[in-house]
UniProtKB/TrEMBL annotation:
Gene name tied to this protein: ga20416
Source organism per UniProt: Eleusine coracana subsp. coracana
Protein name according to UniProt: Beta-fructofuranosidase
Family: Belongs to the glycosyl hydrolase 32 family.
Limits of the Glycosyl hydrolase family 32 C-terminal domain: 385-558
Lineage: Eukaryota, Viridiplantae, Streptophyta, Embryophyta, Tracheophyta
One Pfam family in the UniProt entry: Glyco_hydro_32C
SMART domains on file: Glyco_32 (SM00640)
Keyword Glycoprotein: yes
Amino acid sequence: MGMAATAPLFWVALLLLGTTAVRASHIVYPELQSLEAEQVDETSRPMYYKGLYHLFYQYNPKGAVWGNIVWAHSVSTDLIDWTALDPAVYPSKPFDVNGCWSGSATVLPSGVPALMYTGIDPNKHQVQNVAYPKNLSDPFLREWVKPGYNPVIAPDGGVNASAFRDPTTAWYGPDGHWRLLVGSKVDHKGLAVLYRSRDFKRWVRAHHPFHSGLTGMWECPDFFPVAVAGAGRRHHRRGVDTAELRDKAVAEEVKYVLKVSLDLTRYEYYTVGTYDHATDRYNPDAGFQDNDYGLRYDYGDFYASKSFYDPVKRRRILWGWANESDTVPDDRKKGWAGIQAIPRKLWLSPGGRQLIQWPVEEIKVLRGKHVSVTDKVVKGGEYLEVTGFKSVQSDVEAAFEIKDLSKAEEFNPAWLTDPQALCKKRGSAVNGEVGPFGLWVLADADLTERTAVFFRVFRTNTSKHVVLMCNDPTRSSFESQIYRPTFAGFVNVDIAKTKKIALRTLIDHSVVESFGGGGRTCILTRVYPKKAIGDAAHLFVFNHGEAEIKVTNLDAWELKTPKMNVPQQ
Ligand SMILES: *[C@@H]1O[C@H](CO)[C@@H](O)[C@H](O)[C@H]1NC(C)=O
Ligand SMILES: *[C@@H]1O[C@H](CO)[C@@H](O)[C@H](O)[C@H]1NC(C)=O
Ligand SMILES: *[C@@H]1O[C@H](CO)[C@@H](O)[C@H](O)[C@H]1NC(C)=O
Ligand SMILES: *[C@H]1O[C@@H](CO)[C@H](O)[C@@H](O)[C@@H]1NC(C)=O
């Protein structure tokens, strides 16, 4: 399959070589070094400055040697069309001679952006460095200067120098001190180590970690405030900038989110809770599982994400990275690997029990040809094709109504901890009572290849309903080497009340990114069809449950291709 057939809208292309395994521990794999290949790593560090969104991401321009990891740099005015600039930060000093790794941007009160990143020094120690723009009048911020006083944070005081990385965006407390977190671990315990500074230059480690958990190394921590519904002046979907926390009134009407990327599971988990500047401790709210059974941003392939506050539209935007699920030779052939998911707006649900995510509204400018289906009943065992448009690169919004929930299968409470296992057991081909129903995307005409995005509704012995959302790519293609697990999460909706469930799916050749229940549960998967490509990719609604469903509305748009990281002239 050629590059044109698979190149996703949101690029971050270039070839990948075992990034995952290597990055996790910063081991150099000598057998990979001789391959002529380029490498991308996951983390993106977005920010906004003087009319441009900046996206920094990790990339090795010279090959698979870890010492060359740089911060590549792209800019956009609208989060849709992207222009690639020269790398912003690359190894040039002893404190980053073996690589410029993940980190974050912080826009200081003066308006000056600062980049805080992990450098690998000559002893292979992970240290934290700062860089500033060379020319503040240049909106592209092409050149960055690393002050000679780097590293600003060294792994001393018992911190493991091989597990000490990914500084967060810094925030400023009422006591006039900056704070930031660095991911780390001690034995099996993952840590967010807290540092404080008056001047962004001299950083002092707090006596206690900001938060910790028995879940292995914490990578790419992210910590940020979210507005609470009904509180005071702001709309709860509005983002809150960490800079606003200096205002006590603002600080009193927010909750906080701590997200960590768990190196052991390669998934991301978050809790919502409270944070006290005086004690500098974060406490998840009761009811949040503070471990790897907890809530995830995305129940599919989505890792090392980072959020930022967008001052233009006053919202918090989340960027995540999705790796490839095919093989290294495939990636070498297509010439790229690893993509940036479509940016998502993120906010706290009105009840405060979870975050909601939704593709940024800008994506609508890419919408082209539109087709729709209304009030169409799909009986058990039936399916219908959505025709009249090209679905291979498309945006599909649908709502399904279930008249009769009484037949829903009984839910075993033991399933609650592992929706993925449940989905594996009850995949899209296993007939049920209420569901499976949903979409077959990237399907060929005779339905040999297809990826199912679907729901199943269960009933507990106390007559509550449980909605499972699944992504089943097991029939997306039939190459044995391709990684295609089923992914799943529960959707926290009161389906007995609404009798309806909504699904939005963005399809992009090899990317299927779905938002269930209005963004309550998200699943991104990578699939590599052989037949269902280009104009041969079809879209269907299916129902393999006994209970009939009604597609009350389905709107689908072809999506145009944006400018994907075109080099600057
Ligand atoms: C700084 O950037 C501005 C805007 O791009 C440019 O006009 C100016 O020449 C730059 N200054 C230096 C010293 O490079
Ligand atoms: C430090 O971290 C490295 C990398 O994860 C690990 O291999 C090593 O065992 C850790 N050392 C200690 C003393 O915990
Ligand atoms: C429902 O199931 C749970 C777990 O199997 C059990 O503990 C509970 O007693 C049951 N409740 C009723 C009302 O049957
Ligand atoms: C993406 O690739 C698959 C297949 O190689 C791995 O199993 C995943 O762990 C990996 N995901 C991440 C986040 O690295």
